[in-house]
Fold this protein.
Amino acid sequence: MLITGVILAGGRATRMGGHDKGLVQFKDKYLIEYVLDSLRPQVSQVLISANRNQSQYAKISACPIIADSFDNYQGPLAGMASTLAAAETDYVFFVPCDAPLLSSQLVARLYSHLIQTQADASVAYDGKRLQPTFCLLKRRLLDNLLVFLETEKRSIHGFLKQQALVSVDCADIAETFLNINTPEDLNLTGF
């Protein structure tokens, strides 16, 4: 499978007090390092979507760092558009930088369902709701995404619902969707 993995680390992290979430330390690693460790064996290349601390991300990851081509932190869709434009594979998997329990089987599962259903996008479903920042897109959706962003809409759900989408049951690996959004979340995680 030639799939580019993208770690979304381009936000403001307001709930984390403005601290760049991917660079928050948990135990002996940065949060992004947990994601990298799980993601690298699942994809052919990793890109990091980051709008600040780019040299630190590059040093930690040895991956290309892609800044949003849109101004003013316009959300995850802006990072998705910028990295879709930079990717060289037909498929691109997205994951947030603050998901330290990323499953080692998630990419293959999303890819399998996407191919079986001939969808253009597959998104994880945790048994309760869709997890839109854990998704696999065909790179050709870039044009659709750019048109969607021109409407000034920023909802990942809204964009995905307009595509040929398959929802993939991942309730058995629901822990993979644990996000560390606040300093308190660091104390609540039990891994």
